[in-house]
Amino acid sequence: MVTPYLFKYVVHSSRLRRAYYNSIKNQDVFVRSKISGLRVNLNIGDFVQFYMFMEGGFEKEFCRFMSSQINGGVFLDVGANVGAYTLSLCRKASRVYAFEASKTTCELLQANLDLNSVDNVTVVNRAVFNESGRALRLNLSPDATACNSMFQNGGDQWEDVETITIDRYVAENGIENITTMKVDVEGSDYLAMLGAAETIRAKRPVLLCEFFCGWAEKGNFSLESYFDYLMGFGYDAFTLKKKRFERFLRSRLSEPGFNENLIFISR
């Protein structure tokens, strides 16, 4: 089999890369790579880690945008997973709070932070929700740690987790100067942001939020309701594709299979 390193530097076709990923999917294939100058250990049988390895990051266009918005402030990474955003942005922020429900995934992220002696990231092993202190179960996806969810997602393994609200965590830790927040928690997005209302109202961070109809269905909320809730704080919504930054039209949320990251900026 072609080694991952050779494939990374020789093959640039996205179609062939997808085919290569499918050949190693769900296998343990460990590699060493770099993300924004940081050394990282990755398991590329997981699709997020695969693209972190192949591309030097994941959702790089959005990472670059968020980097331009941090302005030396605090970044809240809600649904940090293995740290695609945290690792890419930690050198731009005064501090990063990386919230991740899975203990095992938190350990992977912390190990890569320790490998680089990064000391401005706090990994918070809690499930961000609309209430604190609740005991829930996290369904562990058989495909990727990024797809772990509070809702059944095809896996037969579960992990016990405890919830926290952003508002409570921010208040208890006296966190100021929050300039950016990314939210991607696989069906719990709306609930997570309900628990961040005071933080959004007081701090006015730039928000990057996943809007996927599939997760909305599992979470029993509508994309329109989630969108209207965020807009109600006095935000405008935008899309970012191929370096084109455009105002987002709410009517698009009803498109079949809708799945995009949306950016919300305070007016």
Q: Which structural class is indicated by helix and strand composition? A: alpha/beta
The ordered string of helix (H) and strand (E) elements is HHEEHHEHEHEEEEHEHHEHHEEE
**Mean pLDDT over all positions:** 93
Strand content: 25-35%
The main sheet orders its strands as 5-4-3-9-10-13-11-12
Report how far the terminal alpha carbons are from each other: 53 Å
Radius of gyration computed on alpha carbons = 18 Å
CATH class of the largest domain: Alpha Beta
- In total, the number of domains comes to 2
Described by strand count, sense and barrel closure, the largest sheet is: 8 strands, mixed
Tell me roughly what share of residues is in helical segments: 25-40%
Low-confidence stretches: none
Per CATH, the superfamily of the largest domain is Vaccinia Virus protein VP39
Instruction: Tell me, briefly, the overall form.
Output: globular
Secondary structure tally: strands: 13
CATH architecture of the largest domain: 3-Layer(aba) Sandwich
Number of helices: 11
Would you kindly provide a written description of the structure presented here, covering whatever features stand out?
The chain is α/β, with parallel strands linked by helices and 267 residues long. It folds into two domains: 1-57, no CATH class; 59-266, 3-Layer(aba) Sandwich (Rossmann fold). The protein is built from eleven helices and 13 strands. The strands form three sheets. Strands 5-4-3-9-10-13-11-12 form an eight-stranded mixed beta sheet. Strands 6-8-7 form a three-stranded mixed beta sheet. A hairpin with a 2-residue loop joins strand 11 and strand 12 (244-247). It starts with a helix and ends with a strand. The model has no long low-confidence stretch (mean pLDDT 93).
